[in-house]
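Sample log: Ig-like domain-containing protein.
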Amino acid sequence: NLPDPARYSFSSDHTELHITQPNKTTDTASFQCNVSNSEGYTFYDGYLKVLESIKITKHPESVNQIYRNEAIDISVQATGDSCCTMSQTWSHNGVRLSPAELERMPFRKEENGSLWFDSRNLSYDILNAWSGRYQCNFSTAYDFRTFEFTIVVKDAPATESLVAAEGGFELWWVIIACGVLLMVIVIAIIVVVAKRHYPGETYPLEKTEIRHHLNPKKELLNNSFQQI
């Protein structure tokens, strides 16, 4: 008798046993095939071990649009059967990426293992070169899974360009105002220095005498009384 007729079935000649939707818990078992006729008897047994298939547990959108100076999470994660070592490889437009390339810009790996596509501080030429189709492959000795997605580099939004232009315009006004103020200060300093070094035709008699501890007004008064 078949253990589960809904999932177990024989081929028409009873030489093949088919199991649909195999389950690791219920279908992992030993199976024996017995063959006999009037001339004799033989059998063959085997062990069926059902493995958990690779399942993609995290992935980005199928199409990802990114602007300059942005970063998006492009991590692809998967789980598989604990019995088997699973490897992960990446490719870009059909060309396999080495682990070293995934450590350099525009890629950035976080401590938690997530992978980011980081467009900050990169030119549009470099970003466009790294746009296109990406493929992440997971494989074991018995299973293989692939996830594909596309990265499209977009131009900066119109509002961003407008803000940048307005910011540059305001900066020019500040530079011009600072330049004019600096010129006024320099001219004022030149005028003051020139007056100090070239006082004109009038000799600063009183200031000179006072600097030498003399009192020209008092001396003039004294001399006037003596003459009278």
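Observation: Residues 162-208 form one domain.
Observation: Confidence is low (pLDDT under 50) at residues 158-164.
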